[in-house]
Fold this sequence. Notes:
Elements: E1 2-8, H1 12-23, E2 28-31, H2 36-41, E3 47-49, H3 50-58, H4 63-68, E4 70-72, E5 74-79, E6 82-87, H5 88-92, E7 97-99, H6 102-116, E8 120-121, E9 124-130, E10 138-143, E11 146-157, E12 175-190, E13 200-202, E14 209-213, E15 219-226, H7 236-247, E16 260-274, E17 277-278, E18 281-283, E19 289-290, H8 298-319, H9 323-350, H10 358-373, H11 375-386, H12 390-396
Parallel strand pairs: 1-2, 1-11, 2-8, 5-13, 11-18
Antiparallel strand pairs: 3-7, 4-7, 5-6, 9-10, 10-11, 12-15, 12-16, 13-14, 14-15, 16-19, 17-18
Bound molecules: 8-demethyl-8-dimethylamino-flavin-adenine-dinucleotide and P-hydroxybenzoic acid.
Amino acid sequence: MHTTVGIIGGGPAGLLLGCLLRRSGIDCVILESRDRDYVEHRQRAGILEQATVDALRACGAGERLEREGLVHDGIELRFDRRSHRVDFPSLTGGRRVWVYAQTEVVKDLIALHERESTPLRFQAQVTAVEGADTDRPLVRFTHQGRDQVLTCDYVVGCDGFHGVTRTAIPAVSRRDYERIYPYSWLGILADVPPSCDELIYAHSPRGFALHSMRSTTVSRLYLQVPNGTDPAEWPDERIWDELDARFAVDGDWKLERGPITDKSVLPMRSSVTEPMRFGRILLAGDAAHIVPPTGAKGLNLAVADVVVLARAFAQLKETASSDLLDAYSDTCLRRVWRAEHFSYFMTTTLHTDPEQPPFETRLQLAQLDRVAASRHAAAELAENYVGLPIAQIQHEA
Length: 397
Ligand code: RFL
Ligand code: PHB
């Protein structure tokens, strides 16, 4: 079996890249190790930047998002029992974000592939990627109990942090940067209307909490917990009581409780692999970089990578020029490191490490107070949160 672009991984990055390539008349095969139901129901991100929404619309996967997505014009920061709203449009020249779950993005993209009959194979476990420095790299995978080989002009690893593609790049030719944080998030889904119109990011002496949402009837909330926490240690009442304590604010506000339908713990990590290309193997999305979720950047970075990459493949096909492809890694890494810094900033400003000296807590509060008091500081946060247009980043690079 041969294809122009072999895509490993059917998460948001792989699925969107497949759509964009097919729109440019470039053939591809997508290999995903999990089954369709698993991929469609994996609970993850919820915030889409405008550029992400534009990319989904442009490839024809924006119809339900248009109908069901919630447009958000700001976020609330809570600290010191005070509340401060960051207004995006007035601070960023009119930009805003959308609340639309990653599960729904993935369902929409898979439905699109189904309509267009893309070769998208579920339960196709890639075991090796070989020949990065040849003209014809190959992918070994197991599907329906048979070992198979896919030869490609290019292989794109969209296989997430635990994927195999990154390891196909020789260790001497890549550099991995990493930071592990001393806390995790306990995330819940609850069948209760959100207690707020916009997301609340709360700094408290008891730890960080985030109130997000999936729809007007489903809330998504997170609590900072120690690494290694077992969700079984957190019965529902304990979770609601702790959320109440961390969101406590002077004035009128009540957190509504409801049945919890999902509970999971996720560790927090920052990592970047450089470069994002080696010969004919390219990395995109979580396969190349991870951010802690505090800045809501993971999914948006994955989308930005594949938009840049799809343009590069289109240029190669139309003009035989590899300029954009040659620039792919540098173009993306610029945006990636900006998002890494923002995610690190949000994480370390809002989480309270149980071991941290009181001095650090005072610095965090001083920083949050600065965002509340200064239009410049608020604009810096808002610009990063809503994200830059993808074309601008590409043009500047
Ligand atoms: P994905 O979504 O991880 O998709 C990678 C896909 O590759 C498949 N795969 C393989 N397929 C074939 N052969 C192999 N050998 C394979 N190995 C792996 C996997 O099954 C999977 O389907 O990466 P992608 O497409 O780059 O998308 C990135 C986003 O998913 C990610 O950045 C965000 O969801 C990050 N993230 C969150 N971001 C937020 O902004 N807010 C969140 O609340 C949030 N929660 C999360 C998250 C990431 C998590 N991970 C990766 C552990 C919660 C979790 C648990
Ligand atoms: C979510 O809705 O899952 C979400 C929102 C904002 C974040 C992280 C997660 O910063």
